[in-house]
Amino acid sequence: MYRKEHDSVGNIDIxxxxxxxxxxxxxxxxxxxxxxxxxxxxxESLVEIKKATAMANMELxxxxxxxxxxxxxxxxxxxxxxxxxxxxxxxxxxxxxxxTNMNINEVLANRAIELLGGEKGDYTVVSPNDHVNKGQSTxxxxxxxxxxxxxxxxxxxxxxxxxxxxxxxxxxxxxxxIKKMGRxxxxxxxxxxxxxxFNAYYVLTKRNIARLxxxxxxxxxxxxxxxxxGTGISAHNDLPNMVxxxxxxxxxxxxEVAEDLVDGTQNIDCYAVVSDCLKTIALSTSKVANDIxxxxxxxxxxxxELFIPSRQNGSSIMPGKINPVIPEVVxxxxxxxxxxxxxISMAVEAGQLELNAFEPVIxxxxxxxxxxxxNAFRSFIDNCVIGIEVNEKRCRELLERSTYLTTSLASHxxxxxxxxxxxxxxxxDKTVLEVAREHGVSESILKQIMD
Length: 451
Known about the structure:
With 451 residues, the chain is mainly α. 60% of the residues lie in helices and 7% in strands. It folds into three domains: 2-134, Fumarase/aspartase (N-terminal domain) (Fumarase C, Chain B, domain 1), CATH 1.10.275.10; 140-222 and 266-392, Fumarase/aspartase (Central domain) (Fumarase C, Chain A, domain 2), CATH 1.20.200; 403-450, Fumarase/aspartase (C-terminal domain) (Ribonucleotide Reductase Protein R1, domain 1). The strands form four sheets. Strands 1-2 form a two-stranded antiparallel sheet. Strands 3-4 form a two-stranded antiparallel ribbon. α8 links the parallel β5 (221-222) and β6 (256-257). It is elongated, with a radius of gyration of 30 Å. Keywords: Lyase.
């Protein structure tokens, strides 16, 4: 069974029981790009904006109370998890997000119509455009929904980063007295403790937490009420402040109205800043994952200084092989985020005049970046970091066979003589102490550098 709906293009058949309408169906016909659904947090953010705006319009006398209350009731039902399957448009779409905005307008309108005793599709009762979208445009609704979504995703990533920092700190304390060989450019350098290495990972993660906290301000101002290009055409003058007030009450965030609504509609550089932050967090943590992967390499022919948990078989042909799959997936998530950062950077630049039409691809990639990092870091904590142990015997063996002593020796006998001892030690497979004695270095000096 179908009902007929029409738009400026013409008539179209919509399933009689569908809550979406002609605009959403057109988008499905036009945009089979990812063939995925909108992220639930993004849908939730859209609903919160529609609810807050209906509340504001009612308070300002711009929306009939009966219609407004029906829209709010429909929104509350969606916020409880209903009708998400009616959001049918592809995340990546032409039109700067208009298809998504109209999809949510249609769903809320049709549910509100039902609540008022009408039949879905009878937009004389509740109109997707005139009522649900009252005082709004895609150009303020869509970017505001993106910002709300990213704030929520930050609230998921931040606790994960805090847990990662705590896990590194525990290991730093546990390994603080275990000496090993430090390396620069993959070559022996000078001694360090395993705990000092893990404390550096802890400090890095704390810095990443601070970065993410600081970047929240970039996406805490909304252009709601700016409508099409930021001039506020068709919206009440007090709508921006009123919507933000209600959104703060609904979400618990500390949002504010954009300093300039035209700028807030034209320019979306804030997303580039957030994406750069995610890339920095991703790449720096990937470096740590690579360190752990290298230090645990082996079990017989690698560095072998760390033991990481065995999570699964590593080969379909080599019996007993175990691979560092968790550090590997962290690095792959970082590659994903870095690639998405390029996409987001290009989309931010591509805006023209009063609007940037490329927010859909920004939101799609940014949401995926947030999810990938949150999930990869959680796996890193639970399946790798908390189970790391040190191969103390291997650390001691490599430390004793290293040539690091010549660094200290150089201050007593000179760089050139110490270099000669190093080369002979490697050439003849002797310890530095053995060769130093052959070169006549006194026992008092050797005792001093060994201390």
